[in-house]
């Protein structure tokens, strides 16, 4: 278990990076530098907020989010790992894997020359529930907070046999009104429509929202752009090591059933997830690693 005093002594950086107690007993890494502010829960290494100086929040955290041991936080950037969606063989295992509800270890922090702040988390084989994942594996997660938000999820196969993972950085973006935004970059891509019994379809033009959307775009390494006219901004999503993009908004009926989206919360968010999911799972040979990396930046529309 991480101890706050030890964390601050070993990894704190003045007022730039401080470990604090948060709701529900969570330990939170709070970052404030010349470029941006952010907050990260050690449970799940869960980035909750990122706000570049002079802009509205870019990452959406539900006002009704619940903070409790072993429970995923609604909003931010949950880590789906080492499987995406339901487990392929045992439906009793948690959806989207266990990484988003496991407490991660901080292993490094740094104030970078460009005034950004970097923090690195790790799960080792000892942290991983062997009944759910009996494969010798370690995973590191590096978060760089600056004018750009950079995330790197690094899976290492430390065993003697190949492993196959699926994964996603399940990022919730803050938008003015999901009904009035568009997402560019996926025109012509094929996707599996989870709202329509996983039928395979093809995207025509930009993605727009008039109801529930739950799509896994497959075989795409394309960058995406969220265009938000009311906020006069666009959010650029640039990824590597990712062959799927998941786009999700639950719409009103499912959002109401969830209970932690907040009133009209579904209108204020959209998930655009850099992933390796369904047909794009990743096989890692013994001694090798796989890196899923994504950069987010904001510009005028």
Describe this structure as you would to a colleague.
The chain is mainly β. The chain has a single domain, classed as Beta-galactosidase, Chain A, domain 5. It has two helices and 22 strands. The chain has helices at 4-11, 251-258, and strands at 17-21, 27-32, 36-41, 46-52, 79-80, 105-111, 117-123, 137-145, 149-157, 163-165, 167-169, 172-174, 182-184, 190-193, 199-202, 213-218, 224-228, 233-240, 244-249, 269-276, 282-284, 289-300. Strands 5, 11, 12, 14, 15, 16, 19 and 20 form an eight-stranded antiparallel β-sheet that branches. An eight-stranded antiparallel β-sheet has the order 6-7-8-9-22-18-17-13, with no helix packed on it. It starts with a helix and ends with a strand. 42% of the residues are buried. The model has no long low-confidence stretch (mean pLDDT 96).
């Amino acid at each position: 278990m991480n101890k706050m005093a030890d964390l601050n002594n070993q990894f704190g950086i003045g007022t730039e990076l401080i470990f604090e107690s948060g709701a529900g007993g969570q330990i939170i890494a709070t970052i404030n530098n010349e470029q941006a502010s952010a907050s990260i829960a050690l449970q799940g290494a869960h980035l909750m907020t990122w706000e570049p100086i002079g802009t509205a929040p870019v990452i959406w955290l539900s006002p009704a989010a619940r903070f409790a041991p072993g429970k995923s936080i609604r909003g931010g950037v949950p880590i789906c790992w080492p499987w995406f969606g339901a487990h392929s063989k045992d439906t009793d295992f948690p959806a989207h894997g266990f990484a988003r509800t496991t407490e991660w270890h901080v292993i490094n922090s740094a104030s970078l020359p460009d005034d950004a702040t970097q923090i690195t988390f790790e799960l080792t084989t000892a942290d991983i529930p062997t009944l759910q994942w009996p494969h010798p594996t370690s995973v590191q997660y590096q978060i760089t907070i600056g004018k750009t938000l950079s995330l790197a999820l690094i899976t290492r196969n430390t065993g003697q046999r190949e492993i196959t993972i699926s994964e996603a950085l399940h990022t919730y973006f803050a938008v003015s009104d999901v009904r009035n935004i568009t997402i560019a970059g996926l025109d012509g891509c094929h996707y599996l429509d989870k709202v329509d019994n996983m039928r395979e379809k093809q995207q025509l033009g930009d993605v727009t929202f008039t109801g529930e959307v739950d799509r896994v775009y497959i075989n795409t390494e394309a960058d995406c752009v969220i265009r938000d006219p009311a906020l006069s901004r666009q959010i650029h999503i640039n990824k590597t090591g990712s062959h799927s993009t998941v786009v999700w908004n639950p719409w009103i009926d499912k959002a109401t059933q969830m209970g932690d989206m907040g009133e009209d919360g579904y209108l204020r968010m959209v998930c655009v997830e850099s992933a390796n999911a369904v047909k794009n799972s990743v096989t890692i040979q013994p001694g090798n690693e796989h890196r899923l990396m994504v950069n987010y930046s904001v510009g005028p529309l």
